[in-house]
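Lab notebook, bench 4. Still working through the backlog of constructs that have no structural model yet. Next entry is a single chain of 120 residues. Request: give me the structure tokens for it.
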Amino acid sequence: MGNSDVPVGQYTQKIFTYYGLNEETLASSGVLTYGSNVKEVTTQVSEGTVDCGVIYATDAFSAGLTVVDEATAEMCGQVIYPAAVMKNSANPDAAKAFLDFLSTDEAMACFEAVGFSPMV
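Model written out:
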């Protein structure tokens, strides 16, 4: 799992809480390893040095890994990537056009193909 100071670790802690698992007990029994970021956890899974890991679906896709289960918003909240046109943008019209594109079915299909959930 990720360290507690990185988002993937914080999401994992919430999932553990949801399932009533005690991280300290798991760690002291030797069944947990930690990564300083999601890429490190992904590498541990990819190299087979761990049995499984909690990572983002997009990282699993990039590493060619198979997602075997997904966390729900109820378990750990929802990861949201906001997008906006900055008020001091040098190219506000192009930025607005790109923002508009991000809301199209074409863009959503691209995002979903690499592991992102549909926008609601």
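Notes after review: The mean pLDDT is 93. DSSP finds seven helices and no strands in the chain. Flag for follow-up if needed.
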